[in-house]
Amino acid sequence: MWQVLTGCVAVTANLRKRGISCDPVCGYEEETINHTLFECHSARQVWALSLFPTAQGVFPSTSVLTNLDFFFWRFKDIPSHEIFPWILWYIWKARNDKLFSNLDSNPLALLRLAEDEAQAWFLAQAEAIGPAVDPIFAGQPSGNGGYGVSRSLSSYLCFVDGSWKETDQFAGRGWFCISPRGDDPTMGAANIRRSLSPLHAGIEAFIWAMCCMIGADNESVIFLTDCSDLVKIVSSPAEWPAFTPYLKDIQADIEEFATFSLVYVPRSQNGKTDNLARRVRSIPHLVTFVNNFPPHWFV
């Protein structure tokens, strides 16, 4: 947001001011920040589908500051108006996908992904799925029939974690998935031969969780992890060449989802999967568990 407010977004108008020659992105000669996020045809489609009221000459307007003023002050009565930063972010990501990969984004799918990721972030901040306590199933279902999940959520929330200790024979993998329909959560835990590092264990846990979601036909999933390096690896794979074999598997799995997102959450919000991964790591023989109730060795 501060980059938008201070005019520091790398649109072609700003790049030309720095002496960098750029071709028009969408046929519009002057690509400003406001044009990219609000006035471009693809951006207007997203805003028209959102809960924010649009009107010619009012919103979106020709001024980026006026448009942001609507979000900060004039749209406060609109339900879930706080999601606008995620919508702006995904409009920007869609612009980059078109520019660098020639990929077109579906406006409705983009909006739903932004809404779901915002919802996942708010749930994590509010500890809406319950505190990180031991055992992990001490929390009670919420009044809406789920585990603190709003009915407006349209994607599965899958928390993932890996556990690694240099002196142990095995590394642990765990995931905990919450359904948008309010069904009982499902979970998985497995141990494998200890890998090279805690980061390797986290990546292997993430890949296994994706495979489990694909096997369960969960087409729209938001994965949540407390490993910031894992988020960086997935978002900027070219900067992590040492993990290329893993990245090939990750990219192949991502293509199986209708909508996919990987979100960082604090460790305090990932207690369920952390406990699963740690417990299964300590078992002296190979174990794989997937179900909607805790395994006997966990209770």
TrEMBL record:
- InterPro entries for this protein: RNase_H-like_dom_plant (IPR044730), RNaseH-like_sf (IPR012337), RNaseH_domain (IPR002156), RNaseH_sf (IPR036397), RVT-Znf (IPR026960)
Q: Which domain of life is it from?
A: Eukaryota
Domain Reverse transcriptase zinc-binding per the UniProt entry, residue ranges: 1-47
SUPFAM superfamilies, from UniProt? Ribonuclease H-like (SSF53098)
Q: Name one Pfam family in it.
A: zf-RVT
Per UniProt, residues of the RNase H type-1 domain are: 160-279
Q: What is this protein called?
A: Uncharacterized protein LOC104747994
